[in-house]
Amino acid sequence: MDVSGKHYLTCLWPGLPEMWFRGQLAALPAALTFAVALNFLLVARFLYPEWLTPLLVKIACWVALGVWLWCVAKSVMRLPEIVSPRAASDQPDRFAEAHGQYLRGHWVEAEALLADCLEIEPRDPPAMLLLAGVYRHTGRLAAAAGVLDQLERLERGDFWWLELQDERRRWQRFADAANEGAQASGDEEAASGDEEASNASEADEATLADGEATPADETAGSEQSAPSAESAPSVESAPSVESAASDGPESQANASSPAQASAAIDSAIESSQGEATDRAFAADMAADWSELGERGV
Q1: In Å, what is the CA distance from 132 to each residue of 100, 146, 158, 168, 216?
Q2: Could you give the percent of the chain with pLDDT greater than 90?
Q3: What is the mean pLDDT of residues 93-98?
Q4: What is the pLDDT of residue 219?
Q5: With bands split at pLDDT 50, 70 and 90, how would you rate the model's confidence at 245?
Q6: Which CATH class is domain 95-178?
Q7: Domain residue ranges in the chain
Q8: Cβ count near 18 (within 10 Å)
Q9: Which of 1, 53, 194, 206 has the greatest number of beta carbons closer than 10 A?
């Protein structure tokens, strides 16, 4: 930025060039002090001259004028450094080197060179725009947004409005891409987590099924292997060898098979009933013969 005649007009107010071109709040006390002193002298000289003696007012005016001239001369000498620090600095301007490193994609080297440039001129719009681009390419989107916001608040940033809007659009594209990547990775993590949870639940179900099947198999095996009390022959009901031998073939047949024993019992009952019938018939016949003998037939 070249220094012109209108820039030197700011030197008439002490502290104004630093505040206007650099935004340095350290110059604010000097500007306020000059304003208070000027207003006090005007009031004491023209509005209320009876406050102070004319001699004291005259001395104060000459002292204030001398201080003001010294501040103006100092501001005039420092104005080129205030308006364009890189041009007035003894250090070499390395912005061209930083721009070249940026175009090559050497972000670390470009950031270091831009830091040197901003150390000389902290409010340089081209260096700030290039630094925001370096932050954007290295994934530091928050830092890039901070640099752009700071540049937008500068009075010199109005001359770089088009470049600032272009950089904001590029920053927005990078931010959207980063959000999409983060969302995709989050979906993948959620899917993998769901798959792991499903596998774990399936494993738990299989373990529970195995645990339930094992006692059932053991119970079934014990029931098959252990004879029941009903099917096992009791000691009392089993016929002994001696009784089988004494009862003869019939008892042996009865002992050998329950069906044969039942058939033998039925035949014995029928034979006993037949014998009883024969005895009754014989008794009736004997009674009849005895009655006939008594009658003398």
Answers
A1: 16, 8, 17, 10, 72
A2: 31
A3: 90
A4: 47
A5: very low
A6: mainly alpha
A7: 5-83, 95-178, 241-295
A8: 21
A9: 1
